[in-house]
Amino acid sequence: MKKIALIIASALMALTAGAQNLGRVNFQELLYLMPEMDGVREKIDAAQKEASETYQSMVDEFQTKYGQYQQKQSSWTAAIKESKEKELADMQNRIQEFQQTVSQELQEQQSQLMAPLQEKVQGTIKDIAKAKKLTAVFDFAASYYFDEAAVLDITPDCRKALGIAPDKTLEALQQELAAKQKAAQN
Q1: Could you give the C-alpha distances from 150 to 19, 66, 97, 103, in angstroms and in order?
Q2: How confident is the model at residue 180 (pLDDT cuts 50, 70, 90)?
Q3: Cβ atoms of residues 47 and 109 within 8 Å
Q4: How far is C-alpha 10 from the geometric centre of its chain's CA atoms?
Q5: In whole angstroms, what is the distance from residue 125 CA to residue 127 CA?
Q6: Residue 77, helix vs strand vs coil
Q7: How many CA atoms within 13 Å lie on the side-chain side of 93?
Q8: What is d(CA 42, CA 47) in angstroms, rounded to the nearest whole number?
Q9: CATH number, span 2-185
Q10: CB neighbours of 178 closer than 8 A, spacing ≥ 6?
């Protein structure tokens, strides 16, 4: 009986010791608040603005030609009318193709720009986890439950290592970005 109690006590101690070697981190917070992300956002915003301006220019040109078509079509011969209709259809196709292509390219650009930042955050998490002798670190977003007492939150240490200001929050960033977007629309 004493052996069973000793085995159970040893197992509980091992589980408790193992639980203390677990960490958690808010990866999204680290990624979006790191100072380098501001430069990425600026590049993405500039590319989106240029794409939007190009798209709008294409739509404006189409609308102008369509307006001319509507005004003059009654005076055109069948061959001219058919040629203009084909031109309008081609323009519509180019606009649709541009929209699809630019959307894919913007997503690829964002992935390429963010990849080094993601690697930096992952490296920082790994370094801090090793320094704290953690056996595993879980992301807040990928987990449904954490026993607060059993898991060490290394987000503050990672924030410091990445140069994120202590008072900077995701909520404040979202408000700042919304204000910039609203100002850009006016």
Answers
A1: 5, 67, 53, 44
A2: confident
A3: yes
A4: 45
A5: 6
A6: coil
A7: 6
A8: 9
A9: 3.30.910.20
A10: none
Q: Where are the domains of the chain?
A: 2-185
**Cβ atoms 41, 113 nearer than 8 A:** no
pLDDT in tens, 4-57: 433 443 433 444 554 469 999 999 999 999 999 999 999 999 999 999 999 999
Q: 125: burial class by Cβ within 10 Å (0-12, 13-18, 19+)? A: buried
Report whether 119 contacts 30 (CB < 8 A).
no
The answer to whether the pTM exceeds 0.85 is no
Backbone torsions φ then ψ of 147, nearest 5 degrees? -85, 105
Tell me the H-state helices in 20-35: 27-33
**Cβ atoms within 10 A of the Cβ of 30, count?**
25
Torsion of CA 93, 94, 96, 102, to 10 degrees: 160
Reported as a single tens digit per residue, the pLDDT across 68-115 is 999 999 999 999 999 999 999 999 999 999 999 999 999 999 999 999
| Residue type, position 139, single letter | D
